[in-house]
## 1
Amino acid sequence: MTPGGPDKDRGSTLPLYIWVTGILLFAALAFFAFAQAASARNGAQTAADAAALAAAQESRDELLEGLVDAIEAGEGDEWLDWLDGIGVTPNSEARAAAEALAAENDSGVTGFEPTEVNGYPGYWAEATTNYTVGDSIIPGTETKHAKAEATAVIKPRCKPAESADPEKAVEFTCDGSEEPIEIDPDDFELGDLPDAADLFAVHLAD
């Protein structure tokens, strides 16, 4: 008769139990590592989005100032170019705005430049987290920083009639506005213009 019994069964299943437990523990640690990496990437993407948007919003304010100056100067149709978003130039204020928003998200701007998307001006920004992914079972994550990039575009929201004469009163409509806006270069006051956000939309490029 072959010796056997419950004790032998328990002895044969113990290695299998240890092996399965080890596999489950490794899977849990691997999942945690990927979650850490995903969290860091999300943080970097949030910082990049914020940086690009901040730069574009800063330049949107510049567009409004340029538009006002062009209207008051009375230099032909130049002010209509500003209304179309033509006139954005790289400036230190845009970079500073991008860096400030990235810093608020515990990241730094590691890449920055003006760009153009479908004919519209904008800014491209790359952000890198100040923090690392953290310790995990994957070697090197304790020193790895997450990085992401984003592009924000400045798009005009207002359009004058094609037959508009820039040296006379020009009526134009803006997205989201029920009433048309009229600008007369010969009788212009700053209050005639809406806010920059009403004239130019700022959004992330698709």
## 2
Amino acid sequence: MIVLAVIVATVFAGLGLAKLFAVPPMRVLAAKAGFSVDAYRRIGVLEVAAAAGVALGPAVPLLGGLASAGLLLLLAGALVVHLRRGGGPREVAPAVVCGVLVAWYTTVLFGVV
């Protein structure tokens, strides 16, 4: 459980910080998705906050569950954006893989699996 929480938190903290600092690859992705850099930074704030909630999830399951729900909503939005922009499997795969990872974390967190 803790290892899974660390993996999810690390992935989204890294992605969120990259968006917050508007590193060049994230600027390119923002433009491709049709977002301004400021809008992408706001998404980064949400990802960093959710990463913190996921990291605390093993100690505070409700917080971890809310954070993972937020991440699943963000990932669903990412999937919609990619599909509307005509993204193929290469563009859609990261959102799908991350979604599966977050869903797995959520089921383990609440003892469903």
## 3
Amino acid sequence: MKRIKTALAAATIALAASAASPALAQDYPLKPGEYVQMNGIYVEDGGELTYAEWLATEWKKFQEYAKSQGWISDYGIYANVNPREGEPNIYLVVQFASIPDAAEQERRDKAFDQWSRTTVSEQVAASGNRAEYRTVISSMLLQEYTPR
């Protein structure tokens, strides 16, 4: 009889704990928010003006198009004022609400190609030309969390 009561008590506790789990998840103190893609770029000495001009024209134009389509919510350029050896000296940041699935990404790629009036090979060549004065060192995908 004692074993039955112990087993029944254990089952009751296990049932109560499993029923409480969804409530605990609802009470999690942090709320997930938007994603932030952060690319760390190292610009070679002497390449700063050329890269700054590209960022202020072409890169900005690309981001403004993505923003107008609702694909991103914001973007920014951040300088690492005191970079240590091997660190990026510029960070390019793009903020967006969600990650598109494969079909949506293909649709966006096609829309971008039509809007920019460039082919994929032209885009790759242009990116390769920037490699003369800049190197992509890092890439991070972060998700913002805010207290509830």
## 4
Amino acid sequence: MKTLMGTVAVLSLMAGAAMADEVKIGVLFGFTGPLESITPSMAAGAELAMAEVSASGAFMGGSTIVPVRSDSTCVDASAATSSAERLVTAEGVAAIIGGDCSGVTGAVLQAVARPQGVGMISPSSTSPALTTAEDDGLFFRTAPSDARQGQIMSDILTARGVTSVALTYTNNDYGKGMADAFAAAFAAAGGSVTATVPHEDGKGDYSAEVATLASAGGDVLVVAGYVDQGGKGMIQSAVDSGAFSTFYLPDGMYGESLIEAIGEGLNGSYGSVPGTDSDGAAKFAELAAAAGFDASSSYAGESYDAAALMLLSMAAANSTKGADWTAKTMDIANAPGEPILPGELAKALELIAAGTDIDYVGATSVELIGGGESAGNFREFEIKDGKIETVGYR
């Protein structure tokens, strides 16, 4: 009997060891391209959650999480698709955090994720078109749609007494979706968009586009572009020519690199970026500071939440298969349940193992609505004396 019991014990230990495996998660962001200055903090946020789950020892039999980075370029759908394919087929990732920019995310969803049955959570793809994209239930995002951000932009401008704006947008899914959402909301509030001019990234001269916008007039130039690319070029040209002195900066234009590039010409400009003043945001800021990155950088908190939500969903499903864990994501993200903040992922895993409901609140007050996207909270900021200052939340 003792021999049998000893054999059972050994087999049990072997089974536990077999379960303790590596789970690879793809981190598909634009490490090169028009958002490369904010990507490091996004990746750091996602990988912080992965490290926290690994350190708990409570994830799927003690399995550890291994992040695998790959470049989406943000704007090249073919390159992003190839990167995603490599992540799945060569690296063997179980799921993908990303993409980052809407166009490449949609391409990866259709060309790689759906055919391969791989789940994705994007922390920063905001195009309204993704709300109704065919996804087989495999796609979620912790970033709010630009349908929401467009309304926020209109609200902020209207509250500041702005009645007319000129509008430029980067000529892709992200820029067009945001421009359309904003223009509709601003018109409904009684505002006037004097001219709408798309711009291409990668140009050396934006004076023609700025001249067209300037001739139409407007109190503010709204720039729905990229902080390290055409959006920056449009603002620089407008400042150099004196065409506009105040700029509205939505999420893709938020970053210290823009202030470094433009300088005093940005003082008095303002904008919005997803964010909240919640307890979760404060806790995430502490964790990020300890890890050596900026919690206030665009979509850093959303990236932490994307990774945490993904891994907790896998734990709830006891599976890394896309169709299994994505079926748990809405329940994990929303009430009812024990609220879970950043730094409490080990606690969340214990509660899941005990069969207790959790409500993942995270760094950004996560609440997923129809289409698997964030309901959305926004931070209003203004640039004063060369520094970004928070002036409110919406």
